[in-house]
Amino acid sequence: MKRILIIGLYIYSLNLQSQEKSTVNVEVNPEVSLFSIVTYLSGHTTFVIPSSYQNLVKKTFKPYKKHPAVSLIKKMYKNKNVEIESTHPIMGLYCTTLPNLKPNFILQKNISEEEFENYLKYLRNFSDEIAYLSFVEQQQSEFESWTNPVKDTISKYKLADRLGSFFGYHKNFKICLDPFNSWGGKAFIPNDSSFVKNNAWFILGYNIYREDGSDITKSPKFDYKFMLVDLVWHEGTHTYINPLIDMYKTKFEPYSALLDKELQEKLQKAGRFKWNWNQFIKEQITRSVVAYLQLKYFGEKEWEKECLKQYNIGFVYTKEISNILKKYDENRNAKTEFTNVFQHIINYFETIID
Fold it and tell me: What is the DSSP string of 153-182?
């Protein structure tokens, strides 16, 4: 088992890109946007912050609310215990570009390949009926007013480059803005190791009210610094570490008792679902990386604030693990693998487990 793990990590490191800087593309992705619009029309969005774009979509596409691409959504997810508003829009990234809109990546859960392909027939028909691509083309100047400030903020704080530098290699970042998404950011991590090694794709929602008030006369706004720190550093870290933690799953498993009933209750109060140990480890290390980067680039006050916030919602090991990450970062060299830090985290767990 140990030999297999070493070989797997060696192959993983050989395939890493050697690009010197991260690339960042911010867009209103037509496929994600299409999935998001039908989700909105279906009524499966908990809350949408008012905007001029929401008002335009509502007026333009309201007559199509009973189209099968809209009405079938509820049936597709019946008894599957998922939040449709966050699950359905990101499926646009699993597809080829319009007008073809065919499966491009294998869905990992929730919907079978047959269901997905059948649904895409209705969605292509929906796109044709509403002249969707023409609608998208007409909104390009509006979309640029959303995307350019996001790109500028990421560049100003070097968020993508700083994350890549921490992990020792850079990726191609793509951020897809979704004005109907009130729940925040989500990483796209398909079951394709080559893609994940080279790319970090996300959806970013409009979930903070504008300071000058949000209403149907104003565009959505996405360029808040703390939102982008959370998106690029938090969701970005998942794209780096999730495959590695899956490789090390058996190494972390002996410490699963740390996710006890009391901690599980604390996490569920903040998040609404029951965590398993592998999910928790990925999330706990990710949040610790964000906390450490806050310390390194924004100072101790921001680090303390981040650690306290994470502790209060159940990620109680954030401060200790972020200190482990600090030591790792200060002592590593160009050849040091990030997986080296896992043993130090395991050693820490060894000292606190009963």
Answer: HHHHTTHHHHHHHHHTS--EEEEEEETT--
Which residues have C-beta within 8 Å of that of residue 170, sequence separation ≥ 6?
A: 17, 19, 20, 21, 22, 23, 160, 161, 164
Whose tokens are 């972390």? That residue is: 252
- Residue 60: helix, strand or coil by DSSP? helix
Element (H, E) at 12: helix 2-14
Sheet containing 172-178, strands listed edge to edge, beginning at the edge strand earlier in sequence: 23-27, 172-178, 199-205, 185-188
C-beta separation of 123 from 132 below 8 A: no
* C-alpha–C-alpha distance, residues 164 and 233, integer Å: 10
pLDDT, tens digit (0-9, with 9 covering 90-100), for 157-177: 999 999 999 999 999 999 999
DSSP 326-342: HHHHHH--TT--TTHHH
> In 3D, which of 30, 48, 52 has the Cα closest to residue 131?
30
Question: Which pTM value belongs to this model?
Answer: 0.87
**HSE (CB half, 13 Å, CA atoms) of 19?**
15
Name the band, by pLDDT with cuts 50, 70 and 90, for residue 272: low
- Residues forming a β-bridge with 27: 176
